[in-house]
Amino acid sequence: MRKLLSLCVVVLSLCSITTVQAQVSMDSPLPLEQTIRKGVLPNGLTYYIRHNEEPKERASFYIVQNVGALLENDDQNGLAHFLEHMAFNGTENFKGKGVLNTLQKHGVEFGRNINAYTAFNETAYNLSEVPTGPKGLVDTCLLVLHDWTNYLLLTEEEIDSERGVISEEWRTRRNAGFRVRQQFFPVLFKDSKYAVRDIIGDYDLINNFEYNTLRNFYHDWYRTDLQCIIVVGDIDVEEVEGKIKKMFTEVPAVKDAKPRPFFEVPDHNETYFVQALDKEMSRTSVTMYKVQKNTAKNPETVIDYRNDMVTSLMNQMLGARISELIQKGNPPFIYGDVSLSGFVRGYDAFSVSCGIKPGEEKKGFQAILNEWERAERFGFLNSELERAKLNILSALESRYKDRAKISNDSYCREMQQNFLTGAAVIGIEGEYQLAQALLPSITVKDVNALIEKCSEEGNRTVVVSGPTEGEKHLTKEEALSMITAVKAANLEPYKDAVSNEPLVDETKVKAGTIVSEKVLPQFDAKEWTLSNGSKVYYRFADIDKDKVSLVGYSWGGTSIVSDIKELPSASYASSFAENYGAGNFDAIALKKMLTGKRVGVSMNINDLQEKIQASSVPADFETMMQLLYLKFESPRFDKDAFDALKSRYAAFVASLSNNPDVIKRDSISLITNDHNPRVMNLSPAFIESLDFDMMKKTYLDRMQDASDFTFVLVGNVKEDEAKKMVCKYIASLTSTNRKEKFVDRRVTFPKENVETVIPIKLETPKTTEYMEFNQYMPYSAHNDLCMDIVQAVLDLRFTEKVREEAGGTYGVVVRASFSQYPKSQASLLIRFDCKPDRSKELMEVVKAQITQMLKEGISEEDYNKTVKNIQKNLEQGKNHNSYYANVISAYAVKGIDKTSKKSDPEVVLANTSKKDVEKFARKFFKKAKRIHIEFVPEQ
Prior knowledge:
CATH architecture of the largest domain: 2-Layer Sandwich
Radius of gyration: 29 Å
Largest sheet: 7 strands, mixed
Shape: globular
CATH class of the largest domain: Alpha Beta
Strand order of the largest sheet: 12-13-14-18-15-17-16
Number of helices: 30
Number of strands: 23
């Protein structure tokens, strides 16, 4: 209670500040949120515990090690990350794969719920969404964390087994982006440890280090004074605290512990420069970094929090200005950013960055430098600042109202940063109160002072990245001269054009009526038929207190377009229209008009449907409906915005052919769709064919008839208000009473099996294996469930056999899908990367696991793990408004009643046996057509 009172005193005192004499010093440390139980054991281990019920009957368990790659010696390069893997390969109480096997039996999934990461300065492990109902499972998770503190076995057999997995992770991550970072990090972080560590480490060292080298790193750094335990969830805080004290106090502290250093990034007056180029890079960018020490105290104070808000306001205003530039015809860059943000521990980076069209590096870099200089020279306007403040407050208000839906893991990550850096954790109530108290005191002068500070000379590095071939890149002399010359550039102050007219002219809205109403008791919902022929399904739902969603569906989509020449423009019509604005407002004016509003409306035209997705908070429900009305009745078509966006797309795709991942994606798309001419990959010719008038024609045609739309409205809006807004803004929409269906254009999977090898130019040799099975078969909830179980079981099998036992890949991706339209079909894809000389061996392992499933069936253990996970996910899904929106949409659009015995996922799962799934798997694989593509390094 003292912590809450402390925060209240801070807030009340800040609200009354009118002079430099304040009741509370701005240097006052911010108190920890009162609901968090924090303690430090005698051995130095820190713990945090918090009760939370999102999701209910679940908890998340974290162990955070204040240890990362920077603590490695040269002979340990990559071993911090290697050690992270070893935590899943045998501990004192969980031998071998015991951690995974134990938790997976309760539906806790590896990768999704059980995971870890290593960074420069930290390593964190999490067990998330663990059921708290099963007796002893909370104790089991605490025991896992206990073993991860000091009781890893690190056997020679398991170390050798994991070398292959990490070698393949090294291979998978060696893409163009990684290689470019390897070129510019030694310059950006010159003379610091950051310049010589890349976390995953050295390939030869990973495969050849002595066992004790890893054990020495473990002993030196995995220790109680650098560790914290975090438990958040539907648990008894007192009980869990008692268990932690009993279980973790016995963990011994390391004697004569090495000091944990802070890693400096040296200051420099000279502006560093580097060209970081790679053959496989698909875009060019120029970034100027200014790395500077973070001045925040540990623990954070009131002034630190205020400074963070000033930074957020500056970033938001700069971002808005750059967005306006991009919206205009012939934009100077593909994307741009000027901002200050956290960088590495203890340091921030002010960056001026842009993605540039081929051959226009000077023009693009000059344009982004001009925006930086304009802000520094003339400062910001009060109108800009007030909009930014409104946006910050509305976001915090929404989070505050929906505070019961803040997830366990979100809280865990906040506590993690409190432990590692002293970042404040005052809770959303505290944040909202503090923002309301502090924001009014922040002036344009404060923000202008910040950008002036960011513009001070020193600690600058300019990084030019892009492809090695086909472009002439900016030189150091050119970049430095541009940075100097911008100070003398002839610039005009930013002009803030704001419209005062209303979003919708209410005199032109002719409200309709609800002509019939039907009660749907199975959904606790209503079906309304409107006077213009539209249908609306409404359900009040306030599980998420501050959310309203509206989804609209109409069959047709681009399948209606018969002329293939028109298809590119038709397929991009809705995405381009999103950049035009609506009604009398262009995109820039519309964004300003919606300042402080938590609302969005997106119109989408896909292959088979027109789909509308809209959302808002309850307070902005009418604004959401007005936007929907405008996008139907007064869509805006802006030729300048079209030209600007087309230009950016053209620049984006110009170098895509350099990227091996794009080549793979495009090849897979063409082959799996049997080279149907309606399937077109993104290319310069595709972008060139985009036509403004054709897009306009498609959009107007697809959105002209509201009678063909079905809407699903779910959220925290009372029925009377929902009816009023539906009649006013949906029943008033134009209708032509046409009844459309999609056209089956016969874009199908190949009728015969395909086996092909595709050579690709690669800087880091690797083979990518891609296999997909497909069968046209009737859709049912039972078949869909069986497909999901087959996927999950194969995922378990491949992880064990291909990743762990064979050590042949970082991971095998398995994805199952069951689509109903235009024809009902089930698909299963399998994909993995590996060393080229092991691809055939590993594919045989994959095929053997499928064969074993079909001949011998599924093991009880694998089946039970999978079913438990599905049950857990189904239970959690019901605790959100979106669950009802999805269930009602399935009924309204596809005719599937998920509350019926035939289609209720929980009922179907309960009535499905292991034998049923095995029978389905045999039927699927026996008749499925197969594609096998092998992407190999070009010799």
